[in-house]
Design brief:
Blueprint: H1 10-30, H2 36-53, H3 60-79
Helix pairs in contact: 2-3
Length: 81
């Protein structure tokens, strides 16, 4: 039996599906290949992003702006490797 979509809005459903795909790829393909140092940075970014997204009423534009400022040094570091 086919499972009913979690969301009725097609764009919401698409976002949900890509989130699931992202988790699948990270867990099956990437995590084993990432250095411990990179995992530490990645975990910090994910935790921070999740905490910011969890703040009720915080605009997504504000979350993105803060994350860009905080993640930029880590992204530049990763590009130099």
């Amino acid at each position: 039996m086919a499972r009913a979509p979690k969301f009725t809005d097609p764009k919401d459903q698409e976002i949900h599906e890509i989130h699931l795909r992202y988790i699948e790829v990270m867990e099956s393909d990437r995590l084993a290949l990432i250095s411990d140092e990179t995992k530490t940075h990645y975990l910090r970014v994910l935790k921070t992003l999740t905490e910011k997204l969890a703040v009720p009423g915080k605009p997504l534009s504000e979350v993105v702006g803060e994350m860009m400022a905080e993640a930029a040094p880590l992204l530049f570091q990763a590009m130099q490797r």
